[in-house]
Amino acid sequence: MSTDIPGQSALPPGNNLQADGEELLRAPYADRPARLERLSTEHDLAAPWTLCPQTTGIATAQK
């Protein structure tokens, strides 16, 4: 994935498949981004990690 900062990694929101020992594979996909955001905030994640915005809008995604 390309980002504005060379060498920066992107962590897409849907990748939160386990948290605090709890498997999230069966959790609704729509709930995972918020959990990932909380995880990022709680652990003060910084570059090279970043959360990527998510949308279901085609026009927004094409921008």
Specify the structural class: alpha+beta
The pLDDT mean sits at 75
Give the fraction of residues assigned to helices: 25-40%
- Strand residue content: 5-15%
Ends distance: 16 Å
Structure commentary:
This protein is α+β, with helices and mostly antiparallel strands. It has one domain. It contains 2 helices and 2 strands. The chain has helices spanning 32-42, 58-62; strands at residues 18-19, 22-23. Strands 1-2 form a two-stranded antiparallel sheet. The two termini are 16 Å apart. The mean pLDDT is 75.
Short note summarizing the structure:
With 63 residues, the protein is of the alpha+beta class. The chain is built from 2 helices and 2 strands.
Fold topology:
Layout: E1 18-19, E2 22-23, H1 32-42, H2 58-62
Antiparallel strand pairs: 1-2
Comma- or semicolon-separated keywords:
alpha+beta, two-stranded antiparallel sheet, 63 residues
